[in-house]
Amino acid sequence: MEFISDRVSVEQRPDGLSVVVSARLPRSKETLLVAWAFAWLCCGAYMLWELLHQPSGPLRTYLAMFMGFWLLYAWRIGGVVLWRLKGFELWRLKDGIFTIKDSVFGYGRANEHFVENMQRFGVVAVDETSWKWQLNDSFWVKGGERLGFEYAGRKVVFGKSLTRAEAEKAARLLERAFAQYRKKAR
User: Fold this and answer.
1) Where would I find the H helices in the chain?
2) Looking at CB atoms within 10 Å, which of 15, 114, 123, 155 has the fewest?
3) CA 156 to CA 113: how far, in whole Å?
4) In what order do the strands lie in the sheet with 145-151?
5) How far is CA 175 from CA 13, 14, 178, 182, in A?
6) Could you tell me how far CA 120 lies from the centroid of its own chain?
């Protein structure tokens, strides 16, 4: 097993390639994220208490609708906290199938792609000074994909929260593995 960085490990086998990308954050950012989620839950608990103690009327209706939106974002925040604390992105190339899986506690859906049908693989071109990219690459969202390819007429992106250097090293490694498979398949 070799390491591209402290978060990215690679295992080359005769039958394929396996890459594991950890979603872990530095301890300071992890603490901020958990504290933010805790504060969100405390605010929601207080708003729920207020909702249950209000008489019928427009304020109660407003609080009920507010709690619906609060619940949506609580669900999203919970998913990000779980992803950052216990999540991994797994890539595997075996028998001409490239599999990408976002795994939390070992659970997650694996998406399979035939290497023969993959086109234009590489590092995703992004404007790192744009506001949209800065938001997508922040630690409080599950995003920041750096690698991608076209498959069956749609774009597939992966490599969440990789740095530019990690993405370039991983892209070179995967391109070599894809080329070896295509050469062997002929």
Assistant:
1) 27-52, 58-86, 131-136, 164-185
2) 15
3) 10
4) 118-123, 145-151, 154-160
5) 16, 16, 5, 10
6) 21
CA distance 90 to 18: 7
Distance CA 94, CA 116 (A): 13
* Residue spans of the chain under pLDDT 70: none
pTM: 0.85
**How do the domains of the chain map onto residue ranges?**
28-84
Q: Tokens 């899986």, residue?
A: 101
| Composition of the chain by helix, strand, coil, percent to 5 | 45, 30, 25
Interatomic CA distance for residues 98 and 3, integer angstroms: 20
Report the half-sphere exposure of 9 (CA within 13 A, side-chain side): 7
Contacts of 18 (CB under 8 A, 6+ apart): 10, 11, 90, 91, 92, 93
**What values do phi and psi take at 113, rounded to 5?**
-135, 130
Least Cα distance to 170 among 114, 124, 123 occurs for 123
Edge to edge, the sheet with strand 97-104 lists 2-3, 8-13, 16-22, 87-94, 97-104, 110-114
Inter-residue contact 25 to 36 (CB < 8 Å): no
Q: What are phi and psi of 163, to 5 degrees?
A: -80, 170
* Contacts for 6 with CB less than 8 Å, ≥ 6 apart: none
